[in-house]
């Protein structure tokens, strides 16, 4: 028997799979990468040697109003390590700068004070100005034109009025934007809900280039990059992290050049050959990305890429925050015909009429049309995922037994411990 270990919340779940049934264990090599310096030193080295840009301290000279876009509670960005050095760089160039952290919630709920404290730490929480973006607060937004796709581009006013706009974040594979990080801090991070919906329309989500690991020709990426340019995002600091959420590499500098360099590095570590199997076990990488079902599209997409038609996907995720959004969950509550009903409705919606959270419903429906999905959780009311069309289990062992009844007791099993981290 082989012991498999799957991230779950802030811990792990374990189960045993017979060696003759185990097809493969697919992992990002980032999880085994050994950095040449400490996390703090990696950040410092990146800030001292920016890609395609002056140093942040030089960009800050003469700037009075500086905005740092920070990721929200759903992203495992090591802000406690990165933010203090960004502040030091900015204040080296402009000691009296008025600095604001703008939390890029995008379409997510607002971060709580407890979540902000966990992210920023006591020192920054006590001494710095932190504003949480609200994509529906019209008074906090400004219209700056149209996206290449034709959608309205409406951005947070604080960012647009800044003398210097910079961002922190991290780079990992992303199921439809190609990669996270870089330009994504602006769109969807700090734009209007209308702009997010236009960018995440059904036609773009279904586009053949809107897939993990692809930037060129990806219409979602094109819109995002344009939005970052219009916002005058001048400098990014993006980390690459391992399974323990520790920094292994940092990229700083120009919003496009530094991001591309980071994406190439991640791609080199994250690519793995798909190993089709009747049962695929995965996760959303544990906390913070497995707090709700809405986010599970990431892990499910990776499993989808290597699960045989009609096969079973087991995804382990705490989902302690429930479904993750009323508008998302409503798609499934109002779909008597299940996934087929949802997909048919969504594909008829024009881009300008995109409905909140339809992209997540679209991807989950796409997966459910091809596979049985079993959600392993002991922290979420099972009625929620069952309404969505998933089966449920309290333990990984229980899920494997159910999967065996569906796919066969001797069916092959492929394991993707962290479904967010790989490009298959």
Automatic annotation (TrEMBL):
It is an enzyme of class 1 (oxidoreductase). InterPro entries: LarA-like, LarA-like_C, LarA-like_N, LarA_C, Ni_dep_LarA. Transmembrane segments: none annotated. The keyword Mitochondrion does not apply. One of its GO terms (molecular function) is lactate racemase activity. It comes from the Bacteria. Its EC number is 1.1.1.57. Residues 8-212 form the LarA-like N-terminal domain. Residues 273-423 form the Lactate racemase C-terminal domain. Pfam families: Lar_N, LarA_C. Keywords: Oxidoreductase. NCBIfam families: Ni_dep_LarA. PANTHER family: LAR_N DOMAIN-CONTAINING PROTEIN, LARA-LIKE N-TERMINAL DOMAIN-CONTAINING PROTEIN. This is Novel D-mannonate dehydrogenase. It comes from Sporomusa ovata.
């Amino acid at each position: 028997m082989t012991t498999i270990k799957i991230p779950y919340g802030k811990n792990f779940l374990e189960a045993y799979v017979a060696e003759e049934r185990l097809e493969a264990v697919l992992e990002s090599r980032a999880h085994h990468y050994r950095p040449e310096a400490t996390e703090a030193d990696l950040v410092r080295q990146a800030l001292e040697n920016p890609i395609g840009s002056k140093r942040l301290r030089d960009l800050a000279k003469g700037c009075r109003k500086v905005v740092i876009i920070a990721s929200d509670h759903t992203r495992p960005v090591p802000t406690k390590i990165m933010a203090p050095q960004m502040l030091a760089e900015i204040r080296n160039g402009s000691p009296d700068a008025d600095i604001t952290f703008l939390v890029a919630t995008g379409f997510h709920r607002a971060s709580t004070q407890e979540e902000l404290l966990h992210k920023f730490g006591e020192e920054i929480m006590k001494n710095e100005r932190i504003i949480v973006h609200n994509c529906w607060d019209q008074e906090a937004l400004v219209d700056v034109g149209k996206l290449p796709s034709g959608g309205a581009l409406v951005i947070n006013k604080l960012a647009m009025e800044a003398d210097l706009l910079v961002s922190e974040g991290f780079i990992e594979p992303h199921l439809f934007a190609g990669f996270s990080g870089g330009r994504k801090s602006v769109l969807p991070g700090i734009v209007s809900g209308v702009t997010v919906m236009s960018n995440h329309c059904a036609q773009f989500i279904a586009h053949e280039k809107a897939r993990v690991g692809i930037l060129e020709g990806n219409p979602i990426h094109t819109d995002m990059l344009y939005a970052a340019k219009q916002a005058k995002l001048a400098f990014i600091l993006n980390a690459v992290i391992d399974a323990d959420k520790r920094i292994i590499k940092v990229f700083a500098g120009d919003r496009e050049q530094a991001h591309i360099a980071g994406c190439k590095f991640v791609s080199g570590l994250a690519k793995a050959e798909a190993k089709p199997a009747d049962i695929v076990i995965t996760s959303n990488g544990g906390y913070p990305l497995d707090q709700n079902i809405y986010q599970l599209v990431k892990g499910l997409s990776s499993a989808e890429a290597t699960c045989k038609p009609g096969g079973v996907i087991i995804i382990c995720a705490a989902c302690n925050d429930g479904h993750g959004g009323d508008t998302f969950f409503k798609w499934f509550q109002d779909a008597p015909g299940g996934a087929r009903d949802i997909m048919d409705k969504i594909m008829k919606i024009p881009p300008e009429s995109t409905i909140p959270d339809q992209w997540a419903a679209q991807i989950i429906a796409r997966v459910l049309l091809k596979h049985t999905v079993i959600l392993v959780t002991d922290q979420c009311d099972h009625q929620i995922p069952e309404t969505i069309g998933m089966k449920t289990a309290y333990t990984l062992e229980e899920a494997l037994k159910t999967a065996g009844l569906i796919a066969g007791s001797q069916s092959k099993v492929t394991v993707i411990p962290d479904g967010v981290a790989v490009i298959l």
